[in-house]
Design a protein that fits this description.
This protein has eight helices and 15 strands. By secondary structure, the chain is an alpha/beta fold. A hairpin with a 4-residue loop joins strand 2 (about 15-20) and strand 3. Helix 4 (about 180-190) packs across helix 7 (about 235-245). The radius of gyration is 18 Å and the shape is globular. The protein starts with a strand and ends in a 25-residue tail after the last helix.
Length: about 290
């Protein structure tokens, strides 16, 4: 396919966003774009999203897709902002996002549609997805959330929060709708990909002070993922995850992230900087 991956890193949330480019057709997909949000002040800006925007324009790419691997709870999505810049791009997410919307729209008392209509495409398991003349598929990989998916293009797989680098392990499962046994089965689906498949992380937390990394391989995960090696069975993995999840704090951006991301990345009344055409998007959660 000759696809190329360009990572973009947000140090505040330890989050990776990606541009997956097909130079042969001049097309690209933007995956898991981050909107900058300062918890203490409530300030919102598009610093990272604008880096992606400028990169895409500088290379003359046509954005065909803006893809979310799941409804993020630790950072706000810039998907809706970027969709406004690239109006022909389709915003896609897994079809079970409707379950997440129903759950959290009720929790936050939001008046919003819960049929996934904020997104252009709701992907089914194993659905075909094309980028230019190159095609991949969408794998449902729930467990961290009910709506998690992995986008597989040739030898690249964008795994969202399902997997981390081998020395950090796997996703937490204690959010509403999460389930450790389901995650274990999703991990097996990813590990069934070829050993050479490059797994693109949504986060890296650089344990022991090492450098940040955004990519591993299936072979590396099989050999050294600390949670997979320490468990070895579905029941043991569930016990490990339950014990670990009980020690984890809630993400600092949890409430604003979920409120925004179930609607594709916008909260009522927001004005994003610098000088963007978002006046008409105030109240656009619905």
């Amino acid at each position: 396919m000759n696809l190329i991956v360009h990572p973009f890193f947000d140090i505040d949330t330890c989050s990776y966003s990606y541009v997956l480019a097909n130079p042969g057709s001049g097309t690209c997909a933007i995956i898991d774009p981050v909107l900058n949000y300062e918890v203490d002040s409530g300030d919102v800006s598009t610093v990272l999203a604008d880096q992606i925007l400028e990169f895409v324009k500088a290379n003359g790419y046509i954005v065909e897709w803006i893809l979310e691997t799941h409804v993020h709870a630790d950072h706000l999505s810039a998907a809706r902002y970027l969709k406004q810049q690239f109006i022909c791009a389709q915003l896609g997410i897994g079809e079970r996002v409707t379950e997440v919307q129903r759950r959290f729209a009720d929790s936050f008392e939001l008046e919003m549609a819960t049929d996934g209509s904020q997104f252009d495409r709701l992907f089914k398991d194993n659905e075909r997805i094309c980028l230019g003349h190159s095609c991949g598929r969408v794998l449902h990989t729930p467990g961290h959330t009910a709506a998690c998916v992995t986008y597989v293009f040739d030898h690249f797989a964008f795994v969202g929060d399902t997997l981390f680098m081998p020395d950090y392990g796997t996703a937490r499962c204690d959010f509403p709708g999460g389930d450790a046994r389901t995650l274990y089965r999703s991990l097996q689906k990813i590990l069934e990909l070829s050993d050479e498949t490059r797994l693109l992380m949504c986060h890296d937390y650089a344990p022991e002070g090492r450098e940040y990394h955004y990519m591993s391989t299936v072979a590396q995960q099989k050999k050294s993922n600390v949670h997979l090696l320490a468990s070895g069975s579905e029941a043991a993995f569930e016990a490990l995850r339950i014990e670990r999840d009980a020690t984890l704090d809630a993400p600092r951006r949890l409430i604003p992230a979920l409120r925004a991301n179930i609607g594709g990345g916008v909260l009522p009344g927001w004005r994003l900087e610098p000088g963007l055409k978002l006046q008409e998007m105030a109240g656009a959660v619905a």
